Amino acid sequence: MNVRPYLIGIAGGSASGKTSLSNKIQEALSVDCTVISTDCFYKDLTPSQLLEVAEYNFDHPDAFDFIEMNQALWKLLHCEEVNVPIYDYTRCRRSDSFIAAKPTQFVILEGIMALYDPKIRDMIDLKIFVHTDSDECLARRIIRDTEQRGRDIHSVIHQYRKFVKPAFDEFIFPMMKFSDIIVPRGAENKIAFDLIIQNLKIKKNSQDN
Ligand code: CTP
């Protein structure tokens, strides 16, 4: 593949439905589309941070390695394959393996910080912000973190009050102003989804011809 991939950024609050929207777009495009999560670029914690993991702010931009994220996207946009780390939420660290991300016609970067870094924003062709009611996000997060991420309900609520909601207000919600499209309710918003797919198919056809 030697055409520069078209980069889509999908940001929004935690558990707002970014992953579902990304996966639905990937399925609907019927061409190769790589999805990368900003969570792959969480920094590993130091041993002392690991001892007090409940007090670590995973929702602050400093928790992410934006230089590495930048380099990975730059390579993909220059048609190079790149090894993306796999993040293990139960151990709060990267696992030992990687995913080989390919420079496909469409690449999606999804995650709470997908639109945060100005250099990354400049690389993104289509910026989407998923906006879901915060009660719904919290309800989904409680279920997900207790069932899939090895947390108990008290730690989920402590983390939400102390870090997740304040970071949403301070860093994530303000990114909405950089987006091209705001999708209320995420993947279940069929009309917004159809409009996005129509737009991407036009892009695809113009690249194919
Ligand atoms: N997080 C955590 N522990 C870690 C690393 C991250 O609890 N070791 C949490 C952060 O608090 C952050 C969230 O993971 O809020 C980021 O993931 P999230 O956006 O919730 O996941 P997605 O699956 O992308 O959410 P969505 O439902 O929108 O798809």
From TrEMBL:
Q: Which Pfam families match?
A: PRK
Query: Where on the tree of life does the source sit, at the highest rank?
Result: Eukaryota
Pathway annotation: Pyrimidine metabolism; CTP biosynthesis via salvage pathway; CTP from cytidine: step 1/3; Pyrimidine metabolism; UMP biosynthesis via salvage pathway; UMP from uridine: step 1/1
What are the recorded Gene Ontology BP terms? pyrimidine-containing compound salvage
Signal peptide as annotated in the record? none
EC numbers: 2.7.1.48
Q: Which UniProt keywords apply?
A: ATP-binding, Kinase, Nucleotide-binding, Transferase
Concerning CDD domains, the annotation shows: UMPK
- List each copy of the Phosphoribulokinase/uridine kinase domain by range: 7-192
Q: Which GO terms describe its molecular function?
A: ATP binding; uridine kinase activity
The record lists the catalysed reaction(s) as: cytidine + ATP = CMP + ADP + H(+); uridine + ATP = UMP + ADP + H(+)
Which protein family is named in the record?
A: Belongs to the uridine kinase family.
- Name listed for the protein in its UniProt record: Uridine kinase
Q: What is the organism field in this record?
A: Blepharisma stoltei
